[in-house]
Write a structure and sequence with these properties.
mainly alpha, two-stranded antiparallel ribbon
């Protein structure tokens, strides 16, 4: 089983167990995420090593190609004056060609391995993002559910009883304020103006209604 499949199966199994039992779901998901993130970190390190090895192989390949060109030119330059040396140059070039052929195979194998690790790492990181997003959504839903439950049932008190408690609290505070003289004084003049202004507004509204009736 591939690394990605093992990790994906591990996460799914952990989540299924969390859902099927009454446990701290958040802690279980966090543990699964931590394990997956550690696996992803190891995959990144492995990928970096493979890339480094691949770059070394490519560098060696380039050096050998340059050597082939160099030995070829050397053979041409000494062919007329020193046949033995020219033949040795060609032998060296042949050795470089053989090494190049082997490197081509190794480079291709490293390329496939690098692509495989990179693809698996992308899938793992994508899965981590999905699980993290789902965990955050579940956390939000749980917070809302808990807040609703608390406001609707504070220590076994229903929402209606909470409202009644506020009303009694207001009454008690009002009585205490009156007894201690801390209640806000009633401004008789302000109250009179408010009543009069309210009457004026109501008369205007009534006149508007009568005009609409007459026009109809």
């Amino acid at each position: 089983m591939s690394l990605f499949k093992r990790i994906s199966t591990s996460i799914t199994s952990t989540v299924d167990k969390a859902v099927s039992r009454v446990e701290n779901h958040d802690a279980i998901i966090n543990a699964a995420l931590k394990d997956t993130q550690q696996a992803a970190a190891k995959s990144r390190v492995r990928l970096a090593r493979v890339q480094k090895d691949g770059n070394s192989l490519k560098g060696r390949h380039e050096q050998l190609q340059s050597a082939v060109v160099q030995w070829t030119e050397r053979a041409k330059n000494v062919a007329k004056t020193d046949e033995t040396k020219a033949l040795e140059c060609l032998r060296r070039r042949k050795e470089c060609d053989a090494q190049i052929a082997g490197l081509v195979v190794s480079i291709e194998e490293h390329r496939k391995l690098e692509n495989k690790i990179s693809d698996n790492l992308k899938k793992i990181e994508s899965r981590i993002g999905e699980v993290s997003h789902q965990r955050n959504l579940m956390r939000s839903r749980q917070s809302v559910a808990e807040a609703t439950r608390i406001i609707n049932n504070i220590e076994g008190v229903s929402y209606g009883e909470v409202e009644d408690t506020f009303d009694r609290w207001e009454i008690n505070l009002g009585e205490s304020e009156i007894m201690t003289g801390s209640a806000a004084p009633v401004d008789q003049l302000e109250s009179a103006f408010l009543v009069e202004e309210d009457q004026v507004a109501l008369r205007a509204e009534l006149a508007e209604l009568l005009n609409e009736r007459d026009e109809a």
